[in-house]
Structures are given as C-alpha cells and as structure tokens.
Amino acid sequence: MFRFLFLLFIIIPIIEITLLINIGEVIGAWPTIAIVITTAWLGAKNVRQQGLATMQSVQTKMAQGEMPSAEIVTGLMLMVAGVLLVTPGFVTDILGLLLLVPSVRKALGTSVQKHLHTRQGNTFGANAHFHSSDFSQGGNVYENEVDNSTVSTEKEPAILERKPHQGETIEGDFERKDK
Questions:
Q1: 3-44 pLDDT, tens per residue?
Q2: What angle do helix axes 69-86 and 102-115 make, rounded to 10 degrees?
Q3: Distance in angstroms (rounded) separating the CA atoms of residues 79 and 55
Q4: Three-class secondary structure of residue 54 per DSSP
Q5: For residue 163, pLDDT beyond 70
Q6: pTM score > 0.90 for this model?
Q7: So what's the pLDDT on residue 164?
Q8: What are the start-end ranges of the E strands in the chain?
Q9: Could you tell me which residues come within 8 angstroms of residue 50 by beta carbon, excluding any fewer than 6 positions away?
C-alpha cells in the first residue's frame, strides 16, 4: 500500500510536471495550458453525461429488484475518471479518458470483480466473500456467514407488534419559542 501511495503522490506529479514543461517548450506555454483546461472541461462534461446514464441504469435495476453491481462499479470508475481529468497533467488526462471508454471500464470492472465475489443468499441477509489479490501482503480470505437462527422462516412476513411504553412517561406543556 505504501508503494502505491508513494507512486500516486510523488512519482506521478514529477512525471506530470516534466511532461508539462517539455510539451510547453515544444508548443508553447499558452497552448499547453489551453490543452489542459480543455481536457478538464470536456472530461467533466463526459463524466457528467455518462454518470447520469449510469444513475438511471442503477435506478432501473433497483426498481426491478435486481442488484446493480456492474453499475456501481461503473459509477466508481467514472468518479475516478472525473478526478483524473480535472487534475492538471497529461498522464492523468490519458488515464481519465481511458476510463471514459466503456470497453476499458468493462475490462477493468471484470478484473476487479474477479477479486471481489458477492453472492446473495435466499435468506434475509447476504454473504460476502472478499478474496485478497496478488498485490496484498497476506493470503487471507474473509467470509461473513449469516446466522439463520435469527431469520424468520414463516411464510408470512414477520410483523413486529407494538408494545405499550414500559418506561416512565413525562407529561408537560410545550410552548414554541421561535415564533
């Protein structure tokens, strides 16, 4: 994790600054600044458009009673793309633009979902299995099992009965002071 953060916060900005300086020497400072601003604006516009389409897809799937897992992953990748696109620099712009391509998102989402496997049980809860990837230090698998003894198995949905209040009741007058 430390290596990843080191790469993210130290190496990438150094590469970005070097590229900005080199490209600025070749095409000039103002065209370089114009390219960076234009990619940020166009990228934000595309992220907004694709994000709204993804949100509609999430709402449709939820209305149908389906789990919108692919759409959630797509939404997260679009959020990362937006952050990358508004970050000044050419490397982050290229990475952000790649995340705007649906086939790239699908391939990346498939590889992410290989490492995160979820399944819904036919009970009141769901089981989740988190498999560690080759990038982590341990080979642990974390599993969460549902305790079926607490789940109602009746054919009718369990309705909680309201019980009368069994504590002390404090009676008094209420006067509104804000008017």
A1: 888 878 888 889 999 999 999 999 999 999 999 999 889 888
A2: 120
A3: 12
A4: helix
A5: no
A6: no
A7: 54
A8: 116-120, 126-131, 141-144
A9: 78, 100
Residues linked to residue 141 through DSSP beta bridges, in sequence order: 131
What is the rounded distance in angstroms from the CA atom of residue 139 to the CA atom of residue 133? 8
Give me the count of residues in the chain. Answer: 179
Q: Which residues fall within 8 angstroms of residue 32, CB to CB, at 6 or more apart? A: 20, 23, 24
| Strand ranges inside 46-177, DSSP E | 116-120, 126-131, 141-144
- The letter for the amino acid at 146 is V
* Element holding 49 (H helix, E strand): helix 29-63
**Which amino acid, one-letter code, is at 126?**
A
With the CA atoms of 30, 36, 39 and 45 taken in that order, what torsion angle do they form, in degrees rounded to the nearest 10? -100
- Selected residue with higher pLDDT from 67 and 172: 67
24's tokens? 């600025």
Q: Which candidate, 141, 16, 7, 4, places its Cα nearest to that of 91? A: 16
